[in-house]
Amino acid sequence: MNSSAFAFIISGVILNALAQLLLKAGTNALGGAIHLTRDNWFITGLKVATQWPIVLGLLCYGISLVVWILGLSRTDVTVAYPMLSLGYVIGALGAWMFLGEAISPQRMLAIGVIMLGVVLLARS
């Protein structure tokens, strides 16, 4: 994978993970679990749609899609697609740092295994 392909792929992964973190921050701002019923779907949808973290998260998703397509045009899917697993690492670390979520020793081990797999993939 050349440097431009890597830059697009990793940027897409980072933007996708950022989108997840922003969406979660937006749902946290709403006060927890979202429950849709026949009576509240419109007002709940309006509350969700007006949360800035959710709007920014959706924007990140859109940009990540464009960047991902640019990256795919420069490398094989067999290399690019497994790189998405880095999103789990970025997401977990971001949730720990910015959302106060816990990372157990078992999760740390899983993150290490994912990173090892990505390194092996990138070297192939």
TrEMBL record:
PANTHER family according to UniProt: 4-AMINO-4-DEOXY-L-ARABINOSE-PHOSPHOUNDECAPRENOL FLIPPASE SUBUNIT ARNF-RELATED, SMR FAMILY PROTON-DEPENDENT DRUG EFFLUX TRANSPORTER SUGE
InterPro entries per record: EamA_dom, EmrE-like, Small_drug/metabolite_transptr
Organism whose genome encodes this protein: Telluria aromaticivorans
Pfam families referenced in this protein's UniProt entry, alphabetically: EamA
Membrane-spanning intervals of the chain: 52-72, 79-99, 105-122
Subcellular location(s) of the protein: Cell membrane
One BP term from GO: lipid A biosynthetic process
Keywords: Cell inner membrane, Cell membrane, Lipid A biosynthesis, Lipid biosynthesis, Lipid metabolism, Lipopolysaccharide biosynthesis, Membrane, Transmembrane, Transmembrane helix
Protein name, UniProt field: EamA family transporter
Signal peptide: none
